[in-house]
Amino acid sequence: MNITALRRFVAVVDADLHFPRAADALGIPLASLYTSIEKLDDEVGHPLLAKQGAGWQLTPAGVLLLAEARERIAAAPPAATTPPVRGGGKAKASKGKGRAPIVKGQPKPYKKRQGR
Fold it and tell me: What is the pTM of this model?
């Protein structure tokens, strides 16, 4: 079983089976949370949560998995945190050539020749 899916399942249970609250606590989209719980249901082979009235309720399989999930999460190494991406420094503009090289005897290309 995926440790991330187990963490999400425990987060839903800890949020009093309230999916939006659990998604906010985890910092993930609500649809992602629903999908991971559905995948966990398929992996276990039994529904873990049952819709009852306006809310959700743990099924007997969910109660058994909850105890095992808490043990696995406690035994697992802590989640690796990605280091924050540092903002870039100053942007360097390419200097380029600027204007065409000066050729002796010819006027500069950007200036008009003065007439006499």
Answer: 0.66
